[in-house]
Write a structure and sequence with these properties.
single chain; Porin; 8-stranded antiparallel barrel; about 15% helix; globular
């Protein structure tokens, strides 16, 4: 009985927060407020940069919930994966790992970014990010390096 009570309390505390994030709509000057949910959980696009969430240039797939997201970026020579946490609307912190295909070493690190919506429907967005990564690739000068990336994403 105590387990069921705990689940009910947690759900009751989280529902107002999650419900607002899912049903939030953005108003633009001179346009009526939309009543449809604005949260779109699947995003696909292209990214370029040298950061833990995107290496060089490639395609990017993201699956998101209101406060967390997981994405994978694939370039011809590298693969990246990261987990994002959204503490506020539109801004996120992430941890990611990247490695060249066929290599056992790569780099990992953390960073921050933003979802910049380019349309009222929230179907098109930019994701600029900055990261600090520890490089573990021989010959590249091991150590902490700063990276940046930019993704153009379409939400489905």
């Amino acid at each position: 009985m105590s387990r069921l009570w705990s689940i009910a309390v947690v759900a009751g505390l989280l529902w107002p927060v999650c419900g607002d994030a899912v049903a939030e709509t953005r108003t633009f000057p001179g346009r009526p407020v939309s009543v449809e949910p604005s949260f779109r959980p699947v995003r696909i696009g292209a990214c370029a940069g040298l950061a833990t969430d995107c290496v060089i240039a490639g395609i990017k797939l993201e699956i998101a919930a209101p406060f967390i997201a997981v994405n994978v970026a694939y370039a011809m020579v590298a693969l990246s994966a990261s987990v994002k946490v959204y503490p506020t609307k539109g801004l996120y912190a992430f941890y990611g790992v990247s490695a060249a295909i066929g290599m056992t070493q790569g780099y990992n690190g953390f960073g921050a970014g933003a979802d910049v919506y380019l349309s009222e429907s929230k179907r098109l967005l930019l994701q600029p990010s900055v990261s600090l990564a520890y490089l573990g690739v021989e010959g590249s000068g091991d150590g902490v390096k700063m990276g940046v990336s930019l993704a153009v994403m379409a939400a489905l």
